[in-house]
Amino acid sequence: MKKLIAARMISQAFFLSLFIYILWSTTYPLKGTLKASTFFNFSPLIMIITSISERVILPGLAASCFILILTALFGRFFCGWVCPLGSAIDIAAVFTRRRRKEDDRFNAKAKQPKFLILAVIAIASLFGIQLAWIMDPIVIMGRFTSLNLIPAITATVNLLLIFTIKAFNYNSAIQDFYRTLKSGILGINVYYFSHSGIIFLFFLTICAFTLFKRRAWCRMACPLGAIYALAGRFAILHRVVEKCISCGRCKSDCRMGAIRDDMEYSKGECVLCMDCVYDCPQHATAFRWSSGKIGAAPGKAGGITRRQFFLLAGSSLFLTGFNFKDRSAFRKTDIIRPPAALKEDHFLDRCVRCGNCMKVCITNGLQPVLLQSGLDGIWTPQLVPEIGYCEYNCVLCGHTCPTGAIPALSLQEKHEVRLGVAEIDRSICIPWAQGGECIVCQEHCPIPQKAIKVQKDVVGDEVILKPYIDERLCVGCGICQSKCPVRPIRAVKVSSRNSYRT
């Protein structure tokens, strides 16, 4: 029995399931200790790069440094045993499994791009520009899970159950089962996200790389993998081969192309999948603790050297005094951000586009931006009141943000935060324009003192109540715009004017 491979597969299944479960179960009201941000704290790429970019110390740094210490002991285990995107790629590889002859020249060159990508991300962070969100595998998997996988599953199961209930003539047992699910795993209002198709294609492209080479993303492009490869070169757990007959089986089956013709291997590229241990017909391969000098495995190391990396990053230090943060000229300003979000430049650099806040928004009102905030604002969250409003008694978005781009507010603090201010277009408002009766916006306003007030006006023989906004009280939650019955353009519109940004 291949016990080590079985253990790896169980570990991958466990952590992938845990990752999805944490994201799925983080709902309003927030319960338990596991939050959607838990896994993201274990990404050194996100935590270190964001800390450098924003010149702050993020709480997740401790967890990410702990993972780096484990990597220095065991090697690049995270990629092979824990990483949810790596597990998804391995699942995709099952459908394309075939023997591939590994080319040493290809493998040597394939290792280099991820180090160069990491260097670009690191240098950009010195300039105050956070690019880690584009390539971090945990963020990519989290965004796909929150904005594609969970909505697709909940919507599909919901439709199937409704069809089944109708097919069985509204059977009471099935209806009771459906109500139970709706109060649990199906009770998530995330049926729509703008640009979710683009997000899905981005994830699908990464998985499709396996058609070219197994774990091609991990070998070539993953900057988090590059960090682990650098730390893993010093691992004290290493591969040994005795009585080798040079059959080349381990080399051809290595999913990372880490084994060379001389049967030595690049320690930093090995993800400890353990395939080579069981593929060897002589049972001559094993992993043991180093008894001698700790360091990289013999032979030429792949990628750029540590010296080249730090020289590349250090050579840009003198440029950090230049102002690379003023990018406001390329953005639209009327974007409603989540409550108390950081000021725009800092928000764009701190936000990692993980999708946590959008997934947990109980009204589905938080949606990903495309180009409304410029190129550096892609997939950041914005409130779209016509889709959903900011629930007055919900603070979940800030408590699921892994980097503090959206502060974790208390309920009392949230009640005092202004997202913007509402305005009534009297030219299309039913009471103002038509003299009809409608105070839907005023009825739904959650402010105890009512930020939408009404004034009496006589129209013909009738007294009409006409709504108006008290800007001193309005917090811009957007429920008035969401509930306004006027179509296609709402008579109430919330803008980000006078919003509070920390």
Descriptive keywords:
single chain, 502 residues, mainly alpha, two-stranded antiparallel ribbon, elongated
Question: Which helices and strands appear, and what pairs or packs with what?
Answer:
Blueprint: H1 3-25, H2 44-54, H3 61-74, H4 77-82, H5 84-94, H6 104-110, H7 112-126, H8 132-135, H9 137-167, H10 172-182, H11 196-208, H12 216-220, H13 223-232, E1 237-241, H14 249-253, H15 275-279, E2 285-289, H16 306-314, H17 344-350, H18 356-360, E3 366-368, E4 381-383, H19 396-400, H20 411-415, E5 421-424, H21 430-434, H22 440-444, E6 452-459, E7 462-469, H23 479-483, E8 492-495
Antiparallel strand pairs: 1-2, 3-4, 5-8, 6-7
Helix pairs in contact: 1-5, 1-9, 2-3, 2-7, 7-13, 7-16, 9-10, 9-11
Walk me through the structure.
- With 502 residues, this protein is mainly alpha-helical.
- Among the domains are: 325-415, 2-Layer Sandwich (Alpha-Beta Plaits); 421-495, Alpha-Beta Plaits.
- Helices cover 43% and strands 8% of the residues.
- It has helices at 3-25, 44-54, 61-74, 77-82, 84-94, 104-110, 112-126, 132-135, 137-167, 172-182, 196-208, 216-220, 223-232, 249-253, 275-279, 306-314, 344-350, 356-360, 396-400, 411-415, 430-434, 440-444, 479-483, and strands at 237-241, 285-289, 366-368, 381-383, 421-424, 452-459, 462-469, 492-495.
- A two-stranded antiparallel ribbon has the order 1-2. A two-stranded antiparallel sheet has the order 3-4.
- A hairpin with a 2-residue loop joins strand 6 and strand 7.
- Helix 2 (44-54) crosses helix 3 (61-74) and helix 9 crosses helix 11 (196-208).
- It is elongated, with a radius of gyration of 27 Å.
- Mean pLDDT is 85; it is low at 292-301 and 318-325.
